[in-house]
């Protein structure tokens, strides 16, 4: 095995004591997955009742304590707190002398690479960014969902093998993300996953307003097929009135949304314009039909 300058083995982590700082939805699931791989969760921190329940469900018998105490017990520390909290947490732990030289310190934020861990790195910690590309429920099913899940991995070159080994032990697939590419990587995931939830929820709301009793059942097959086609074919999977250049139908959509769901108009127009641009660029939307369609979209379907 190679060794980090601190003397820590880095090619493949040995059996580690694992601590979780921030027992939200993600941290306990990652620690539980590491436990299945033979590592030993020893401590967690969490203040809310929900955090305590998650820790009890996923990490039974693991004591809850203050973050500094978690660091004192753990060889590997998982910092699983909200993005905006992470920089201050790292700085505070380093300033209070809680960080031990040679201690592996990993966060699960998509936004950040390892630069956010700089205060801990200066104190001798070995920095890792291990972001699971998955939504979490805070229940044991999350551990199962890690199987085959991609992780966005960022680490110093000498820690790359250790980072990848930890991801594989959790059942995941490591994908190397350069430090400077983390914000773009995270924006892409937010567009794909977070906006998808908003779109689906809005579509169900509108179907209910249209009298559909079970919009989830109606949308399930359609959206499943659309997602599968999009992942396979990209823009070539585009269908519907925008891709066809059916300006009259789009204008009717906008008029109905203005009447029944005005809060949905801005989102519909923004997505329709983007769809039209992509369909036109990829040869799906005929230029002679695009003019009328873009006129409808530019004035929001106004008469």
TrEMBL record:
Gene3D superfamilies referenced in this protein's UniProt entry, alphabetically: NAD(P)-binding Rossmann-like Domain, ProC-like, C-terminal domain
InterPro entries: 6-PGluconate_DH-like_C_sf, DUF2520, NAD(P)-bd_dom_sf, OxRdtase/DH_put_Rossmann_dom, TM1727-like_C_sf
Sequence ranges assigned to domain Putative oxidoreductase/dehydrogenase Rossmann-like in this UniProt record: 5-132
Occurrences of domain DUF2520 (ranges): 149-274
A Pfam family this chain is assigned to: DUF2520
Protein name, per record: Oxidoreductase
